[in-house]
Structures
1.
Amino acid sequence: MKRICKIILARVIIGIIAYICFVQPNVWRYALETLSPSYSTIDRIVNAKGVILCRERLINSPVSGIMMKIKNDFTRVSKGETIAIIFPTIEDYNNYIREVNNVINYYDNAIKEKNNMIENKKREIEKTYGELNRASELLNSLVANKQDITDVLGKISELNNRIDSLKSELIGLMKELEGLKREKIHKLANLRENAISSNTRVTVDSSGLISFSIDGREDIRNAIIEKGLEDNTNLKIDSLVREPKVIEDSSLVKKGDVIAKVIDNLEQFVILEVSLDGKSPISHSSYHLNIDGKDVGIEFIKWVNSYPKELWLCKMKSPYYIGPKYISLSINVGTVEGLVVPKSLIKEEEGRYFVYIVNSNSIEKRFIEILGGNEREVAIKNVDKDELLFVD
């Protein structure tokens, strides 16, 4: 019995020693959550911000004075058209506005009065129709009772004649109303033409969309279109558009002041600052973007790589006019192959990326290279397929 106990005790001791020496050091590996990367192909999505560009032709005031617009914002104009006039003084401008307001007030009152007369005439016609219906009902009753209908027939004839007369009067009033509206338009047009002919005209020397909103960055945007990126590699996207100054009617302008611009809406460009998804090269051919819900194609003119960003200058292929504005979007730039891991496992240290590798007896901090990917997963280098990544 003692011998059996000694054997059991010896085996227990041997088991404890084996556990301490061989099992316990590796238990931690099984307590960790790990991931084995798989080789796959995934979509590459890059984030970009930028500005849509158009050629913008600035228009300067030829003289000093008070400006009045002839064209509304974003009206299409042709070369040589008048877009505004400059009155010499504020008194001249106020006199013109006073004449315009007098015409508007006179005709608006006349039109209002004529509309009231028309409404009254319609009510009178409706009332007469009511009398006619009652007379017709009386006629039917007299006929059914075989009574004399002479007086009722006379009444019905009189009401029908009255309705015809009222309708003629209504048609006459409506013609007079249309005449008043035409007169108002004609009078205002004459005042406008007289103002244009007797004051300094501001004309355009190119075709496009007129805009009286000036932000002072037009020359910078034009330079990017004309000169490309060679002299503009350090430009700040956020500085390309700013809050515009709107030139309103009655604005005092000085000779040489920029008061408007003509936007060439037939040709649009876009400059994009792209945050690269990795070091695998991107194809610089053409892509499709979603801008304001519209499918817009782009073709590359020039690009500058300065990892981790690229600067793109592209020509837009779109039937839609979007106009100078900031945009922020995601772009699908194709696919990438490699060992794919969740993006959440990637850590960053001073511009370098690393993951934690679980080895047989330690956790290793391994620097890697990101080839590309998207918001959820990325393809990486410098990790073998059979290695385990620590999931924290």
2.
Amino acid sequence: MITVRLKHEYKIPSDWPEFTAEHHGQFVKLCTAIENFEKGLLTFGQLKVSIALAMLDINPDKMRITTGDNEKLYENIFRISELLDFPFVLQSNEDGSSTVYIRISLFRNLLPRECGYRLDVSPAGLVDCTLKAEQYVDALSLTDLYTRSRSDEALVKLCETLYGTSEGFSRDEMVAVYYNFRGILDWLHKLPQYSILFSRASRKNGGESPLGLSGSIFSLSKSGYGTLKEIQDLDVFTYLGALVQMSVESIRQLAAAGLKPVQIADKLNLPVSEVLPHVTDNDDYEHSL
């Protein structure tokens, strides 16, 4: 947390893990700024200032430079904006320029409602999750659709998928629902226990990960992990764990059939590094390099 003293004292998150549901208003404003940047409505400099205003919960429309105090406020906001770099990453290009990428990684629902899904991880690592496999699958597809199209219809359907309704949500809040879920997806993708599912090589032809498709639920049911309804009702962590187990079983079956790690990796569209821990001829493979 960063403590800022202007006319009031503010304690504001300096990274995504510090956000809680208590920061609801700031998070909604922050998501609005991020969307405007991704839609090309803000420059990078304007994004940085908008991030600071959002975190201070200041409405920019009500700010006017009419006195020396206001000029000082603007100067302080600019200084604060230089500290709040957690929502983006700057990547240097070969020509000396830089590209800005939005970075959101969240392990909790910051917009909890009684009708909506719960997801939170305690400091002790205990998980509280009601997000079901079917919700995850549908919401992943709708998140991808909204990312590509910015369609209000996709946004409303995403909200309905995760909360059962879109009533009572402003558009800005629905945008925050989208970025919240996008942040959860990023966090899930980085968990080491699911690396076999979300590795880059598992995306054919540079396309989206196949895990968001309903076919994964049918595959688990067909492989004996439960009825279709039982799989759909699994919490997302149990569902992803089952997909990991199914992937490992596929690797072992192919290894038992005599395929080498490189062949298994090619057949399952996985990196060799994800195959090696699950085959018995690791040493032979390493000596053959």
3.
Amino acid sequence: MRQSRMIYTPLALAFLAYLFWRDHERLVANLSEVAPGLVGVIFLLVALGHLCIGLSSHLLLRSLDHKPGLGLVLSIHINRLPARYLPGGIWQTVTRALDFSAKGLPKATILRLVLLEMGISVCLAAVIGGAVLLWMSGNGTAPVFGLVALIGAVGLIVGPRLTGMLGKDVTSMSGATYLASVGSFSLVWVLYGSAFALFAAQMVPGIDWARAIGIYLISWLAGFLAFFAPQGIGVFEVTSSYLLTGTLASGLVTSMFAFRALTIVADLCVWLIFRVWRWLTCTRSGDTDQPQPSKGNQCNEKI
């Protein structure tokens, strides 16, 4: 198991390097139109989003009566960020599950955590994105977005009960802490949607901020549901371009690919900062980067 956990990060980094090398000319041309200060704000919003993701997972585990600690949950999430971009789109989830298993969490709890995390992200995207576009769209498309929001709301309500049917060993769930986790992930979508809105305003001047957030979430949802497209690549870009302008202008679609590249770089920067911080703190304490586990010292723990 340890060997399988070690291979995902270098594979992901190699795959990302290939993608950037293959499309670097197109990406540089589009990103050159974005102000450096704006890029910094987008990076900050993405980084804050990861903190909220870690908090949401931490609260979910607390609702299931498991308390590994926010620091550990967040460390595992950030340390496995590169695996998110491996073909298939599931490898960050897989490696996080392996990490939690290595920390002694029951398999039933890990399965329920993964399902709840996925359900919350999908259902919240549907609720927030559908509600915003229902509010701001014309009569022709409003019923569609209203239905999307309704389905998402139902999913948030029944999700804990459905995942509680996994087996007799699954513990009961704290409703209040579950709601806190949902609230934390709502902040994730607001932060990511705001990053998209800032970028979209450069490409489509005058776009309404709230509408841009709704478009981001519905486009993300379309990409998630397109199982044939890893990480929704292509589907997100086409959907967001169409919802922004009502057309499929190739230049705007390409710009949306540039936004994806920005978020990937932001993710890798967060991961790199974490790895450097971990190395510095562990070196200062006299420990090597990844020795054998030792109780009470996180530097000595294999993450």
4.
Amino acid sequence: MDKAQLNKNLCRQVEDIIFQANALESCQYFYTDFDNFCQYNQELKKFIQEHITNSKILSIAEDIPDISLKIYLRKHWYSFLLSGNGNNFRTESALRDDSKWDRAHLKEQYIKIYEELCGNEDNVSKN
């Protein structure tokens, strides 16, 4: 794959994850969508780190949080066990609220990458 094609594909994927971050605010099946979003984030971040040569983009990518549904559910389960109160078990809306900062930060980082990456084709490809 040539540099221009790789750049075009990465721009599309970065655009897509920004769109997905926005869509999580109003999605109906948050657990499933959030889990898919987390996996996509990990794959895209790894791909960027392996294929981008621009040090500014790599620095931004390093600051993208590694989030997962498991981490949030574990935190909620511990909260439930420690409280001893079934009413304190975290709901899907609580998970949505708890992950809001990480999702917003992740989205901001991808917007920075998009602005940097999609404005300069020389930033792509270590191959």
